[in-house]
C-alpha cells in the first residue's frame, strides 16, 4: 500500500518513482555494509602499527585488498549479466561477513594479508552487484539523481563509520571487530528483503534487442566460450572512458582515506574523526542542492566544479596546521569527490548497453581496484619517506590529470549521451503510449 502511494505521488508530479521498496532496502543494506567497511579502513593503519607493522605495510594491505577485488571482477561481471544478480550480492555479503569474524584472532601480518585477500574477493562481488542492481532499479530519466542518492549510503557511512571505529579503539580491537561483524550480519539479513526482479520501462523495451536471432550458431568449444565470457565480463568498451577518469581519481581518494588517521597523528590533530563528519555533511548538502542538475543540464555543470573543489581540498591538506583549515578542506573534499563519482557512474550506465551493465560496472570497479591498490602502496612509501606535504601535492597533481582526462574523453560526449537516452528511452515510450491511445 505504501509503495503504491509513493508511485502514484511521483507519477502525479510527472516523474518516474525513485523511492521504491527495492531501492530503499538496497540502500539500507548498502549503508550497513559501508559503515562496517569504513570502520575497517579507518582503524586498519593503527591496528597494523599495534602489531608491529609500518605505514608502508599498511599500504600493502590496502593494495592487496584491492588487487583481490580486481581478480574477481571478471567473474562478477559474467555472473551479473547471466545469472540472478541478488545471488551475487548475497554471495559477496556472505563472504565479507564470514571473514569479518576472523579478524580478532589474527595478530600476524602474514595471516592478516591472507584475510584481506579473502575480504577483497567478497567486496568485489558485493560492490559490483549492488551498483548494478541500483542501476536496474533507478528509472533511466533519473539516473544521475538516483545514483547520487544511492551513494548517500556510503556518504553517511563516512560520517558514522570512522567516528565509531576511532571511538571504539579505546575499548580494544577485539570488541571493535565484533561490532563490525554485527553490522555485517544485519547487512546480510537485509539481502533477503531485496526484490531484484523489478525493472523499469527502459530495461523492458531493451530486452528484445539483446536476444540472439533464431538459428544463430552457438560456439561448440566450451573452453573458448568460457574464456570469451570471462573476458567480456571484465571488459566493456563503452566503460573505458569513464573508467580512465575514475582510475586517476581513485589513486588520490583511496590513499587519502586510508592514511588520514596517520596524517592526523603526524600533524597533531587530536580528533581526525571530525574530518569524516564534516566531509559527509558537506557531501550530503551538495548532493541535495545539485542532485538534479546533471540530469537536467548535463554532467559537465557538476563534474568540473567538483574536481576543482577536490583539488583545492588537497592543497589545503598539504599545508594545514590548524583544525580550522583541516575542516575547511574536509568540506571541499566532501562536496568535490562526493559529487564526481555518481556523475561518472551515471555516464557509465548511460553509455553501456543494458545487457552489459554488469560488465560495464566490472570494468569500472576494476579500474578503481587497480588505482587503490597501486596508489596505496606508492603513497604509503611517499608518506613514510617524504612526508604528508609531498603526499598531498602528488594527490593534487593526480586530480588535475583526472580533470584533464574528463575534458578530453567525456566532456564532448554529453550531447551524444543525452541524444542516446532520447532515442532509446523517450521515443519508444512515446510510441508505446501513442499506440495505446489508438
Structure characteristics:
single chain, mainly alpha, disordered N terminus, 438 residues, Growth Hormone, Chain: A
Question: Explain this structure to me?
Answer:
The chain has 438 residues and is an all-alpha fold. The chain has a single domain, classed as MFS general substrate transporter like domains (Growth Hormone, Chain: A, Up-down Bundle). Helices cover 80% and strands 0% of the residues. It has helices spanning 2-12, 21-50, 55-82, 85-100, 109-137, 143-150, 152-168, 173-191, 201-206, 222-234, 240-267, 273-290, 293-297, 300-319, 323-351, 357-385, 388-409, 414-437. Helix 2 packs across helix 11, helix 5 (109-137) runs antiparallel to helix 16 (357-385) and helix 7 runs antiparallel to helix 12. The two termini are 32 Å apart.
Concise summary:
With 438 residues, this protein is mainly alpha-helical. The protein is built from 18 helices and no strands.
Which secondary structure elements does this structure contain, and how are they paired or packed?
Elements: H1 2-12, H2 21-50, H3 55-82, H4 85-100, H5 109-137, H6 143-150, H7 152-168, H8 173-191, H9 201-206, H10 222-234, H11 240-267, H12 273-290, H13 293-297, H14 300-319, H15 323-351, H16 357-385, H17 388-409, H18 414-437
Helix pairs in contact: 2-3, 2-5, 2-7, 2-8, 2-11, 3-5, 3-10, 3-16, 4-5, 4-8, 5-16, 6-15, 7-12, 11-15, 11-16, 11-17, 12-15, 14-15, 14-17
Amino acid at each position: 500500500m505504501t509503495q503504491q502511494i509513493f508511485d502514484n505521488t511521483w507519477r502525479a508530479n510527472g516523474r518516474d518513482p525513485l523511492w521504491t521498496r527495492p531501492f530503499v532496502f538496497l540502500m539500507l543494506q548498502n549503508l550497513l555494509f559501508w559503515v562496517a567497511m569504513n570502520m575497517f579502513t579507518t582503524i586498519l593503519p593503527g591496528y597494523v602499527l599495534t602489531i608491529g607493522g609500518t605505514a608502508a605495510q599498511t599500504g600493502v594491505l590496502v593494495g592487496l585488498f584491492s588487487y583481490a577485488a580486481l581478480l574477481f571482477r571478471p567473474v562478477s561481471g559474467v555472473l551479473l549479466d547471466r545469472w540472478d544478480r541478488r545471488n551475487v550480492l548475497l554471495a559477496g555479503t556472505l563472504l565479507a561477513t564470514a571473514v569479518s569474524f576472523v579478524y580478532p584472532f589474527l595478530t600476524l601480518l602474514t595471516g592478516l594479508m591472507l584475510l584481506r585477500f579473502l575480504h577483497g574477493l567478497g567486496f568485489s562481488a558485493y560492490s559490483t552487484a549492488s551498483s548494478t542492481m541500483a542501476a536496474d532499479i533507478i528509472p533511466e530519466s533519473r539516473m544521475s539523481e538516483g545514483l547520487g542518492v544511492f551513494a548517500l549510503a556510503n556518504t553517511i557511512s563516512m560520517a558514522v563509520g570512522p567516528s565509531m571505529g576511532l571511538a571504539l579503539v579505546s575499548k580494544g580491537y577485539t570488541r571493535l571487530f565484533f561490532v563490525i561483524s554485527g553490522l555485517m550480519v544485519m547487512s546480510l539479513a537485509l539481502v533477503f528483503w531485496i526484490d531484484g526482479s523489478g525493472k523499469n520501462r527502459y530495461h523492458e523495451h531493451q530486452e528484445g534487442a539483446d536476444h540472439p536471432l533464431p538459428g544463430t550458431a552457438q560456439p561448440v568449444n566450451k573452453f573458448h566460450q568460457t574464456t570469451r565470457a570471462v573476458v567480456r565480463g571484465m571488459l566493456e568498451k563503452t566503460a573505458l572512458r569513464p573508467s580512465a577518469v575514475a582510475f586517476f581519481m581513485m589513486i588520490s581518494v583511496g590513499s587519502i582515506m586510508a592514511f588520514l588517521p596517520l596524517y592526523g597523528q603526524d600533524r597533531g590533530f587530536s580528533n581526525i574523526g571530525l574530518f569524516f563528519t564534516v566531509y559527509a555533511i558537506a557531501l550530503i548538502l551538495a548532493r541535495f542542492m545539485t542532485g538534479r542538475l546533471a540530469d537536467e543540464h548535463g554532467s559537465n555543470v557538476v563534474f568540473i566544479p567538483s574536481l576543482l573543489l577536490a583539488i583545492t581540498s588537497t592543497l589545503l591538506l598539504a599545508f594545514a596546521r590548524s583544525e580550522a583549515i583541516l575542516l575547511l578542506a574536509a568540506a571541499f573534499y566532501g562536496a568535490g569527490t562526493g559529487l564526481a563519482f555518481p556523475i561518472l557512474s551515471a555516464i557509465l550506465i548511460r553509455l553501456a548497453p543494458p545487457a552489459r551493465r554488469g560488465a560495464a560496472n566490472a570494468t569500472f570497479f576494476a579500474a578503481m581496484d587497480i588505482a587503490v591498490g597501486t596508489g596505496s602502496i606508492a603513497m604509503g612509501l611517499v608518506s613514510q619517506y617524504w612526508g604528508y606535504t609531498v603526499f598531498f601535492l602528488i594527490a593534487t597533481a593526480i586530480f588535475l590529470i583526472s580533470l584533464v582526462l574528463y575534458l578530453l574523453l567525456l566532456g564532448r560526449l554529453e550531447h551524444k549521451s543525452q541524444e542516446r537516452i532520447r532515442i532509446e528511452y523517450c521515443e519508444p515510450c512515446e510510441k508505446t503510449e501513442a499506440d495505446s491511445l489508438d
